[in-house]
Amino acid sequence: MTDSSKQTEHFQHADFSGDHQDTYRQHRPAHQDFHWIEGKAQGSPYAKFLETLDVTAGIHTCLQIAYASDLERAANLDADTGATTAPAVGIVEADQLMRLAIACAGLIRDEARRRVEVLCD
Fold first, then answer.
1. What are the CA-CA distances from residue 11 to residues 16, 25, 113 (Å)?
2. Residue 94, class by beta-carbon neighbours within 10 Å (0-12 exposed, 13-18 middle, 19+ buried)?
3. Which of 32, 80, 87, 119 lies 20 to 30 Å (CA to CA) from residue 40?
């Protein structure tokens, strides 16, 4: 396989009569999936578990936004008229962020438990 054949893909498309035609070559997309772990260890079970770093960061962010919004709403109850500040998200959105964080944390917990069981067997 030459370098140029690695960079392009051959596509077929159907015309309106239903015939397939070889029509053109197009460069492969430059996008590569992001991974925290590179090299030989990338596909290992432990590395796959470590890839949850983005999920845990998302959980952390969800909880921060929901908590800060709740604090702001509480502070607004005690604030003078005209001295209130809008929370980052509304009550419904804060609830949705909390449920998302709970669900994500549960998935990570379940996977961690599964891995403990595998190591203990």
1. 16, 6, 44
2. buried
3. 119
Task: Please return the burial class of 88, using the count of CB atoms within 10 Å of its CB with bins 0-12, 13-18 and 19+.
Answer: middle
CB 11 within 8 A of CB 28: no
Question: Using CA atoms, how far apart are residues 35 and 112, in angstroms rounded to an integer?
Answer: 19
pTM: 0.65
Q: Are 115 and 50 spatial neighbours (Cβ–Cβ below 8 Å)?
A: no
Handedness of CA 62, 64, 68, 70 (dihedral sign): positive
The model's pLDDT over 12-39, given as tens digits with 9 standing for 90+, comes to: 555 555 555 555 677 888 888 888 888 8
